[in-house]
Amino acid sequence: MRHITAFFFFMTTLVGPVWSQQHGHEDHAVDSTVTKVEAPKVFLDKSPRIVAYQLKRLDNQRLLMVQRKTDDAKYIPVYDSILSRIGMSPQFRQEALKALVTLQKSNPVTVLMNAIGKLDAEDREENRTAKQLAVMLLGLNQAPLKEHSNILWEAIKVDDDLSPSIAAAALLMSNQSETDLGKLTGGQSGQLAFLKAITLIPDAKQRSPFRQRVLGLLDRSGNQQIKNAAITAIGSLTNNQAESFVLLGPLITDDSLRASTVRSMLKIPIKERDSETSMQVTRFLVDLAEKTPAAERTSPTFVDAMQLADQLMAIIPSDQARIFRQRLSAVTVRVVRIKTVEEEMRYDIPYFVVEAGKSVQIVLENHDLMPHNLVITVPEALKEVAQLGLQVGPNNGWNGMPYVPESDKVLHATQMVPSDQQITLTFDAPTEPGEYPYVCTFPQHWYRMYGVMVVVNDLDAWLKNPVEPANPIGSNRSFVQAWKVDELKDDLDSGMRDRSPEIGKRLFAEASCAGCHKVQGEGGVIGPELTDVFTRWKGDRVGVLREVLDPSHKVDAKYVMQRILTADGRTVTGVLLAEDDDKVTLLSNPEAKEPTVIAQDDIEAMVPSSVSMMPKALMDQYTKDELFEVMAYLESVAPASKP
User: Fold this and answer.
1) Dihedral through CA 451, CA 456, CA 460, CA 464, nearest 10?
2) Which pTM value belongs to this model?
3) How many structural domains are present in the chain?
4) Which domain holds residue 568?
5) Rounded to whole angstroms, how far apart are CA atoms 269 and 350?
């Protein structure tokens, strides 16, 4: 896919200007709403209770404006707040961790486990924050994890849903002995912590050595909670997946294990699924669908099961698949579940296939911070529909939908789906076979967030000889590698040497960066000017690279996305422009001509996000050399510094 539409989409973290400044004359109305934030006065010499009260009342931007140093213990509460605050960027959490280790004469393992222990697993945002702290813990070198394993062992005993599993994951990554692992899994609480820990370990290769212990717990335990946790863990293990598929197949008949079994089987690649097990599972699931009451056929568990059955029909013989599909069509429509990928501004599947004229139901799940929709167009109309949607804006679109144009090239569309919500779209597929694009028409998302609905006359015949559809925006790129700063920083200086500005400029344009950003007066106006990005960063190549590859590492507090839940159940996201006792003013998207104003009385909750609007993984379809070409191009246009 051609997807650096937003290469530096949120490079305001790099160069500073807010959207209203980027738009020039288009957004003068927004300029007047921007409120200058004054540094708060916090009295750190008061009692701990009063200090905590003062800090709790501050939003993240103001919290980061509080003076903090590492030479006086009075600053500990400030760093404590930064470390565990919802929506705080990783860079500031790392700063707080380092400071607390110094001020408390402690170690990172103790500091992080203490912070995790104060968070509420039942609160979704605090749970998410705990997972972010867990990433920091598991990112430590093996040595400190092993040196302070006593802290982790103590945390295993804590009676909550966060600390034991996170501590267990850290223990597993600290190279514990077989004796210690046996000790960990000796009781039910430790077994549960161990199994949940498997899914927290970031690298698939690091999970693999624990496969046999997971299988042993599944086989021996009579506890349903342990069994379900083991099944979930198996789904995250990427070694011996063919064996896992065969092992999980018979468990699908158990009502108490079916949901976790289906989810784990869905994670196993189709090439690792054998035909015999696929036939057995398909037969059972079709029988189950026929017995399931109509009112229960929209539940997430049922939808997952039908998704699995649909996938397995591509493996079993066509004549039998056709019979199963006819039976299913008599009781339920074909369901296609599409998820948004958090932080990456893309759908999780590039295409799906439906039979001409048959009913189909799309379940769109939004796991991203930004709102997204899904609009199906006629063939070769993706870009036109997306650009027309931009002109429509947030009001009075097709069927009253925002960003969906009144056009005969729009076939079907969903409303905008807020973060952590889903929507269902049911329709009859076109009668004419072809490749019908689907796209998110929220401003500027179309460059990256799209796919294809392939319509065929005979679905089962197509599945036996599938043909991948053409990329709907004409890109021939595919995934190269999930680039990380640590993998590239040592080669950065040599890699950027002797590069061609012409090649870098071409790649910059090809990747659609120029559609959003100006360089030397040429390009778009949605994002900030990038001509002097290296000057602003004082030539720090690694710093600029980190912002490209890991845009959420540092999100300036004044550009943090806020998610507001209103009293009537709506979710609104945007950058906070102003807030007072009466109202909150947000800029909901970079193309907005006017801000969104919400009365304080209408707000149920306002939660900041630690995730940048600029999606990660932007360079994953470009080679290392191409990445260095673009970096060198941006450096080449930087104005010479004055003596």
Assistant:
1) -70
2) 0.77
3) 4
4) 561-608
5) 15
